[in-house]
Amino acid sequence: MAMSLDGFIARADGNLDWLMKQKTDGEDHGYDNFMASVDGLIMGRGSFEKVLSFDEWPYQKPVVVMSRTLRVADLPDGLRNTVTLSTLEPEELMQELGRKGWQRAYVDGGKIIQSFLRAELIADITVTHIPILIGDGLPLFGQLDRDIDLEHLETRSFASGLVSSKYRVQQTG
Amino acid sequence: MAMSLDGFIARADGNLDWLMKQKTDGEDHGYDNFMASVDGLIMGRGSFEKVLSFDEWPYQKPVVVMSRTLRVADLPDGLRNTVTLSTLEPEELMQELGRKGWQRAYVDGGKIIQSFLRAELIADITVTHIPILIGDGLPLFGQLDRDIDLEHLETRSFASGLVSSKYRVQQTG
After folding, report:
1. Which range is least confidently modeled, A91-95, B25-29, B148-152, B162-166?
2. Whose CA is closest to B48, among B32, B66, B26, B71?
């Protein structure tokens, strides 16, 4: 997740202009390695619709969209082979994906990550801090039902000013 | 400023238990060096009252509390030599302190930092990320009237999991 230094992942209306304007050409922030390490992506309807608004579909890997309202007929034709819709709860979904051979998924979007954290299905979190203060916006996850302790694994900083830190989630058991 | 990884400087009620429980014995996070580099502290009434609730007054340097409601008679006897009250605006206050020989102050507390940022009186910001998610709480500053771009200067991480990043504020004019 990318976050402004004051802790927001997007402006209140979802706008990412402050993120898009960062000049990071030629820097390897580890995204390709990370994407190579997962079997696919899981996101909510909000993130999916945000990604759909981009000029180009950015993912090579399969994507599962957790939604109770989207129908297959709502998907753009070009995405019907790569995007699956699911109404399962996080644990059931991970079991189903596990039966299909998935071992590790990239879980994206505040509400979805929140529900996966609650189910103790998030193993690690990487946050990249963007060198800007935007003052107001959407928080990383929203409310949690308990604190979640993290173990810091590594931090890397880049010429652009991005600082990326990776943490392991301490599960309660 | 210390901040949870999800971007909060305190729980919604001001509680810092999640910060106090961090095990950082023997680590030098640069606080002493930083305090040696300033001529004194400037804070608001909220931060001042929080610090008063600690077992011991933590500062050696002079402290200016910006408040329109506190009176000298409200100050504990032991602090009347070290704490000054001021009703000046940020620019006027810095001019007055400059006449007294101050060159650099440690400005603490969300609302106060916000007003100093607006007046372009903040030169640099150090944020220390604490390895915990608390889900909800007080934001770093609150709303700003414009984005503030930062230049990343350095990042250090510690065995405790704290990650401290220093930024220079890009002034507009």
Report:
1. B25-29
2. B66
> How, if at all, do strands B124-130 and B163-169 pair?
antiparallel
State mean pLDDT over B1-24. 92
Could you tell me if A6 lies within 8 Å of chain B, comparing CB atoms? Answer: yes
Q: How far is CA B1 from the centre of its chain?
A: 6
State whether residue B36 is helix, strand or coil. helix
Q: Do residue B161 and residue A141 have CB atoms under 8 angstroms apart?
A: no
For residue B167, pLDDT over 70 is answered with yes
Distances (CA, A) of A118 to A121, A140, A170, B139: 8, 15, 12, 23
CB contact under 8 A, A135 and B141: yes
For chain B, list the domains and their CATH numbers.
2-169 (3.40.430.10)
Supply the DSSP symbol for A30: S
More confident position, A108 or B98: B98
CA B41, CA B61: separation in Å to the nearest integer? 7
CA distance A93 to A67: 12
| Chain B residues lying within 8 Å of A155, measured CB to CB | 155, 157, 163
Tell me the average confidence (pLDDT) per consecutive run of 10 residues in chain A, 173 residues long: 91 91 90 93 92 91 96 92 96 97 92 90 95 91 88 97 96 76
Per-residue DSSP letters for B7-29? S-SB-TT---HHHHT---TT---
Q: Are B113 and B141 in contact (CB under 8 A)?
A: yes
B138 touching A (Cβ < 8 Å) = no
DSSP state of A72: G
Read off the amino acid at residue B111.
K
Q: What is the pLDDT of residues B13-42, one digit of tens each?
A: 988 999 999 999 889 888 889 999 999 999
CA separation for the pair A142, A144 (Å, rounded): 7
Write down the residue that tokens 């640069």 correspond to. Answer: B30
- Reduce the DSSP state of residue A85 to 3 states and report it: strand
